[in-house]
Design goal:
This protein is 73% helix and 0% strand. The chain is mainly α. It folds into two domains: 49 residues, Homeodomain-like (Arc Repressor Mutant, subunit A, Orthogonal Bundle); 144 residues, Tetracycline Repressor, domain 2 (Orthogonal Bundle), CATH 1.10.357.
Length: 216
Amino acid sequence: MDSADRFVTVLQHGRREAILSAFAHTVVDLGYTAVTMDEVARRARLSVGEVRELFPARPDLVAGLIERNTTAARARIEGARRETVGVEPWTERVRVLLTRYLEGMAHDPAYIRLAIVEPAALDDVDPAVKIAMRDAYVTSTLAISREIAADAGLVPLDETTVHFVSAGMGELVARNIYRGMPPAEAMLAIVEPTVRVLELMMPKAPAATPAKVDAS
């Protein structure tokens, strides 16, 4: 890649981030249904044409925000996974991982509003994008579950269970927010209930049965 191509790439990345940030602030201030491409362009200090060049319509902005959030969330989970290797008991490691993940999510109020407060906004998004978002989270969670289970001698979670736990966490956060709890507090309030659920869903693995010795 020559210097001209690098300049274009950097410029497009900068515009993309400016547009997504403008979109996020607009969602928080006005709600998704009130978002217009004109308003996003105004806040990003770009023309509507420049915005539409990267994000042709509102659903593309939602998809872009989901992608950015998912990438950051996976990075937080992976960083916390490395930092908590060897932490005991295993429930404390899970507690730290959940707290780190949810603290990061709490700093993205636009994502919270789209995914929890105004979930109908995601109806506009290509189902493949939503599936990819869920799969990225589930893949990371499954890998960590298997690692923790192997270290602590537990039964690891399966993919279906991870989906159930994830959905339950979202419902708990939504309930907390609807009751007037600030988003950051609403997110962190589900750490302990989630740890208790995982304790029930990840019991000790049964001891291996010794092989019978043929005495004949």
